[in-house]
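Predict structure. Chain length: 198.
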Amino acid sequence: MQPKGNTQDKHLVSKLKEGDRFAFDALFFAYEPTLYAYAMKLTHHTEDAKEIVQEVFLKVWEKKQQLDPQYSFEGFLYTIAKNLVFNKAKRRVYDFAYKEYLSFSNHQVEYATENHLLYNELNELVNSACEQLPPVRREVFTMSRMDGLSNREIAEKLNTSTSNVKNHINKALRFLKEQIQIHETIPLIFLSFLHLLV
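Prediction complete.
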């Protein structure tokens, strides 16, 4: 049995309100094709459209006692379908955004961890290379980079000229960079920050 027109819809909806399963089946078979076409138009996806139809009629059954036979049953179905499609789309946007956030966060953690390991490796290499510098050059370099003294302050402490201090620092940096470049695991970009790591 299929509803034909408003009168038939009102009669079946009234019976559905009473829990009549036959009325529910009749409404389902009458509106399933057009509701599916409507869902396809909104989703452009076969499985999604089928799922929407099933969910719409599940809600119809759950809310059967709230139905009003005087209102358009077809309009009621389309309203539910539209809301379901909207909610599904919204959830997918949220899911996508959340997955992107997790991916970005994990990437950031991995990147930070990788950089931390590279920093430690670089620091060890620099310290090891510093030990190979001539004593005076190592002292000048340490006072400059570790103690943060200016060239003039170092020159005064060592009773030498600022140009001599600058020369020692430049030669020390050049030697350290040469030593670090031998290790291919250290990205070249880290070499530009060498003066900050020592």
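Summary: The two ends are 87 Å apart (CA to CA).
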